[in-house]
Design brief:
Layout (H helix, E strand, L loop, with lengths): L1 E2 L5 H16 L6 E3 L1 H7 L5 E4 L7 H6 L3 E2 L7 E2 L4 E2 L2 E2 L2 E7 L2 E6 L1
């Protein structure tokens, strides 16, 4: 299991995006937004990852402690290789089922 070692919301968002791109096999549709870009979309000034084409409710699953794995239908499960519940200096929470927000702890 990979634990995120980043110590800032920016580092966590970028590290998790790299993991998602590796897991997905491409960077198609995985977008990291800085606080100004996130503020334009949501009423939160923080780093975020948006992946509308990911497995259903991927952001909810990962922020709740579950992990992604390539299942029969591309879904998630409680097994896998990425744990992102929180780190030192940051925490994550879903904005919706395809956007994950990163805040300073």
């Amino acid at each position: 299991m990979k634990t995120i070692k980043a110590k800032t919301p920016r580092g966590a968002a970028n590290e998790i995006a790299r993991c998602l791109r590796k897991w997905n096999g491409s960077d198609e549709g995985i977008v990291v937004k800085n606080p100004a870009e996130t503020k334009r979309c949501f009423d939160s000034e923080c780093w975020s990852i948006c992946w509308e084409g990911g497995p259903f409710e991927w952001a909810v699953a990962l922020s709740g402690g579950s992990n992604l794995w390539a299942g029969e239908f591309g879904n998630y499960s409680a097994r896998g290789d990425l744990d992102i519940t929180a780190g030192v200096g940051w925490f994550a929470e879903p904005q919706n089922h395809f956007t994950l927000l990163f805040y300073k702890d």
